[in-house]
Give the backbone structure.
Amino acid sequence: MAATIRQRYTARSASSASEGRQLCRRTTAAGDAATESSQLLASALGCSPRNWRGVKTARSLACELVYVGIERDQDYTGLNRHPDVIKAVQDAVAKYETGSGTSAMSGGMCELHKRAEKMIAKLLGKEAVMLFPTGYSTNLGVISALAGTGDLIVFDRESHASIIDGIKLSGAKYVSFRHNAVEDLVKKLNRAIGKYDNIFVVVESAYSMSGDLAPLNDIANLKEKFPFFLYVDEAHSFSFYGQHGAGYCQECGVIERVDFLMSTLSKATAAVGGFVACDRRYLALLKWSANAYIFQACFPPADAAAVISSLNILQNDPSIASKLHELNRYMRDKLEEFGFDLRQSQSPVVPVYFTDDEELGRINVKLYSRHIFTVSVLYPAVKRGEGRLRFIVTCNHTIDQINYTVRVLSDLVKKSREKS
Ligand SMILES: Cc1ncc(COP(=O)(O)O)c(C=O)c1O
């Protein structure tokens, strides 16, 4: 890393001041978008936007619908209900009590956190792992600590908000490339070469909104021509792609060329938390400059116990990941049989696209009433006209549930299009 930590801190304060000037404009724009989305949802739910908070939360609806719906959460592996995981959490609470009390830096971690770090490092074949309170704060903390003035971050346009927030906070220059378009990434790198202290390329392995996988081989191969650090977010692939669940980077054979690999622990490993895995030489920089690590309470010991238990189960029972992939394939085949276009999606995130947001909202509500829980993804989360119902397949779903969901969805769409 070319710039020192002190330089980074000074530069960051300067850039936050100029960001502040833009804040009012951006807050207004965000408010407009939120109003637009909530009006749409409220009208679909048959209530006024003023009191639509009174409508049941997605979580409570999900709890009622869990046995019939396709998506409850993103607990891909279904381990949040596994008796071993629940027992490990109960034991951890009995021994270490609830909460963590403080940040990792000031003693919030216990030996369970340390064991989780070691297990993940071994699984990934990386020298070091650092735990963060959530996946969001991992991206926010790590990216903003790594990059600074004089650096450039080149990121995929569909990157998660936590990546984008980390980039903005870093004070580095940034530019996006078209989603999964390696030729556009090459164009951006060609323009940047020789002009920056460090260049970071940031991608996700499996995209959270589109369910497609990144061309990781092609991206990693670019390191032969361009000097950059590769940062990969494996939130939607860690624990169920790759050998023993080491993730999609491992499956693609690029993990050694990934400099920083992060994931949330809130999806497939049945807990809350996040981590970054990297070479040991970067630990000092991260531990002493990632504010999300230094100034935020770490996740509780019970969550570390859930992570350890989940990873043990997944490593000893590859049939869990295989079942997830089989169900995912089955759901995709069924949807395609009924004429749905799933675009490039491949992962257990299965997006069904709608060009009309109102139709999407109406169908989403009708799905609820037929006991199917899914979430509408609308602008500004995705581009206008690319709204989608985002189904997520987990190991706990059954073939009957998938058949039911696809049939109901297909009937609703058919009726809606006949009317219009
Ligand atoms: C790609 C990606 N990265 C990071 C996160 C943040 O993870 P967490 O929910 O643990 O904060 C998410 C959450 O959905 C995600 O989809």
Remarks:
- Strands lie at 128-132, 152-156, 173-177, 199-204, 229-233, 260-264, 274-278, 349-354, 375-377, 387-392.
- The chain has two domains: 56-76+318-419, 88-316.
- The chain has 15 helices and ten strands.
